[in-house]
Amino acid sequence: MGTTIVQLFAVLLLSNAVFCDEEESKCVEYNTQTFAENINLNNHFVMFYAPWCSHCKRLHPTWDELAEMLNTEESRITIAKVDCTVETTICSEQDITGYPTLKYFSVDKLEPVKFKGTRDLPSLTNFLNEQLGSNLVKHDEEEAEVAKGALVLTDDTFGPQLESGTYFVKFYAPWCGHCQRLAPTWETFATKYKNNKGVTIAKVDCTTDREACNAYNIKSFPTLLWIKDGEMVEKYQGLRSLDDFSHYVEDRLGGADYEKLEIVIPPSSPVVTLTSENFDAGVSNGLTFVKFFAPWCGHCKGLAPTWEVLGKKFSSLKKVSIAKVDCTLETNKQLCNDQEVDGFPTLLLYKDGEKIDEHTGSRSFEDLYDFVVSHGKRLEHDEL
Fold this sequence. Notes:
Layout: H1 5-14, E1 18-19, E2 28-29, H2 32-38, E3 43-49, H3 54-70, E4 77-83, H4 88-93, E5 101-105, E6 113-114, H5 121-132, H6 141-146, E7 151-153, H7 158-162, E8 166-172, H8 177-192, E9 200-205, H9 210-215, E10 223-228, E11 231-235, H10 242-252, E12 272-273, H11 279-282, E13 287-293, H12 298-313, E14 320-326, H13 333-338, E15 346-351, E16 354-359, H14 365-376
Parallel strand pairs: 2-4, 3-4, 7-9, 8-9, 12-14, 13-14
Antiparallel strand pairs: 1-2, 3-5, 5-6, 8-10, 10-11, 13-15, 15-16
């Protein structure tokens, strides 16, 4: 059946450094030997962690995205990590007493610098810019070239600009892969509505204008908000094509009071409803991505439309199902306990009846879709 886990592990042991799964991350994982061999060859930003640490688990998707952006052949910085439950010598030498601990190692300085800020991507990249003394993370050239349609908002202008009128705003980071792919579409979309008096299409670079992004509690990129008279009306959760954006705007400009609208799931929902009675059968074949939720949960409500779009995206595939379980129903409580659901929403992936992974990263459509696809590629005779 191809390469076995034992064979794969043997290959990794023969490498100079142990790399994370290439489908998921470009992060470099060092052991005692490779840490000593490589730490002085380039500037390094290292996460010292423990696999059981909940804060480390939450940071891992962000750390992987940082590695995806910066771990290139010509990069002046290497994003790496060390498992302190295995590499105890390194962690002892580095005086690691809590997890995760993030340290910047410069080729020009003897002592590393400990990162003490908020563990989000803008804060991490700003820290690296400060340490390197230059703009390590530069604006994408394509973004700069097409920046002709969307209104550029900054910390100085966003308040007065947004306090009156209706705006559809993209909050982004230039290094974000999803943002880079969206940039041309967003500018074309903005040009299309440039003369429309009903709405202004705008954008904010959260790496340079953090005050504006903090004002709207931006936690991931890109985030697209419909804002009216300075207040956030709703977060856009749909697909990101020009037609999808146009339909969304036309719906919003149709005269309805969208601030009072509730999410209505159509009767023909592509999401499969599972209960204690049909759960085993429902997850028995192929991949099944299950949302365990509670109707009163705010995060669950926010995820609901995205989950529907995800279900629609995979509805034509026989070996992939998007499902949900309402854990507040008396008949489902034991099921949720058996699946070790301890918070809402909990997103678990099953393959042929076996629970194989939990999604703990961003709940944007792109990240959820990529999560399923990365596992789906491993299914035999099925292409996503």
